[in-house]
Each structure stands twice: as structure tokens, then as C-alpha cells.
Write a structure and sequence with these properties.
mainly alpha; Serine Threonine Protein Phosphatase 5, Tetratricopeptide repeat; 12 helices; disordered N terminus
Length: 222
């Protein structure tokens, strides 16, 4: 039981750490998510529009966003928050800063503020994968697992190569919904996108072992 608790806690910690990777990308419309992948992976009009807007991002706007993202990555959350808010005042049409403000609010334990920023980001771009992923995380923390799953699925529908949403779907299905098959599928998809992750590889092997044991047990009872 203790070992299982440690494994579950590790998954949660790794999941939280994975989300911090969002802040390392400097693309405004990618909201530090999957960058160009989010545009290239879909054919819907919304993503085409996003790609056109990305080509027209002012250099000054990109520089301001890069600076704020770098400060956020360095851990200066107060300065980063001020810079993202300043960015939004100057360039309200880009949801990336709103998503990062949601991340900062969530890290500070202010889910109400995080929800507000996520809502604003989705008003700008309803199919924004990083915003939908953050919405899923927020709903999961609130114990709304079905709603969280819906948000994550919308994220991977908008951007099939958005690895973090697949990762979160794996965590959600295994730890909170006890759907081992679905968890395995999403962890494997995460690996396909991101490449070999030794920890996730161990989780995949564990899931396969447990699923195999369940199948053997089912055959015995037939």
C-alpha cells in the first residue's frame, strides 16, 4: 500500500512538473504549449487563422512575451505576472499570456483567478489546447473528473500532438477513474510524441502487467 501511494504521488508530482514546461516556450499563440505543432496538427479553420495571426505577430510583442516567459521560468512569479498583465493590455488578442497567468494563479493556490484567466483565454480562442489542458487540471483538482476528461479530450482534438494533455489523460484515467486501458493508450501516445521517458515507460509496463493479470483472472472466473 505504501509503495502504491508513493507511485501515485510520484505520478502527480511529475504531472505538475510537466505542466511547468509550458512556460519555457516563447511562442505567443502556443501559450508555451506545443508551439508550431499545435498549428500543423489540425486542419480546422481556427488553427489556420491562428497560423495566419502568428505570422503577423509584432516583433515587440514577441519580445515582451519572451521576456515575461523567461522571468516566469526563472521563478520570479511576481514580476512575471506584472509583465504578462502589461502584455495583455497592449496585445489582448493573444491567449498565451492569459494561460500563463492561469498557471501562475494555480501555482499560488488561487484557482478562482486561474479559472478566470482560462475563461478569458478560451473566449479569445475556444480551441486553444494549452488553455483546455489547464481547464482540465483545474477541474481535476475540484474532483470533477468527467468534466476534466472532456477538457483534456478537447485539447487533443484541437491539437492531436499536444503531449501534455495525453499525459494528463493517462494520469486521470489511471489514478482517478481506474480505466487502465485508456490510461495505457494515452501514456503510449505521450511517448510517441515526446520520445522515450523512462518513468512513463515504467508506468506503461506496470499498466500492461495489471491488465494482463485482470484478463487472466477474468478467464479463471468464466
Amino acid at each position: 500500500m505504501l509503495l502504491r501511494h508513493f507511485s501515485n504521488s510520484l505520478r502527480t508530482r511529475v504531472s505538475m512538473r510537466a505542466q511547468t514546461l509550458l512556460i519555457l516556450c516563447a511562442l505567443i499563440l502556443g501559450a508555451c504549449a506545443s508551439g508550431p505543432k499545435a498549428v500543423k496538427s489540425g486542419e480546422d479553420a481556427e488553427q489556420v487563422t491562428a497560423e495566419e495571426r502568428l505570422s503577423n505577430v509584432p516583433t515587440k510583442a514577441l519580445t515582451l512575451f519572451e521576456q515575461a516567459a523567461a522571468i516566469m521560468a526563472a521563478g520570479d512569479t511576481v514580476d512575471a505576472e506584472l509583465r504578462f498583465k502589461e502584455f495583455i493590455l497592449q496585445y489582448p488578442g493573444y491567449p498565451g499570456a492569459l494561460v500563463n497567468l492561469a498557471i501562475l494563479s494555480a501555482q499560488a493556490g488561487d484557482d478562482q483567478a486561474a479559472e478566470g484567466f482560462i475563461t478569458d483565454a478560451l473566449m479569445v480562442d475556444p480551441g486553444h489546447a494549452a488553455a483546455l489542458n489547464q481547464l482540465g487540471m483545474l477541474l481535476r483538482r475540484q474532483g470533477k473528473f468527467i468534466e476534466a476528461e472532456s477538457a483534456y479530450l478537447k485539447a487533443v482534438t484541437a491539437s492531436p500532438d499536444y503531449a501534455l494533455a495525453h499525459y494528463n489523460l493517462g494520469v486521470l484515467n489511471e489514478l482517478y477513474m481506474q480505466r487502465l486501458d485508456a490510461a495505457l493508450q494515452h501514456f503510449e501516445r505521450y511517448q510517441e510524441i515526446e520520445g522515450e521517458d523512462k518513468q512513463v515507460t515504467k508506468w506503461i509496463a506496470d499498466l500492461k502487467r495489471r491488465l494482463d493479470a485482470e484478463q487472466r483472472a477474468a478467464k479463471v472466473t468464466e
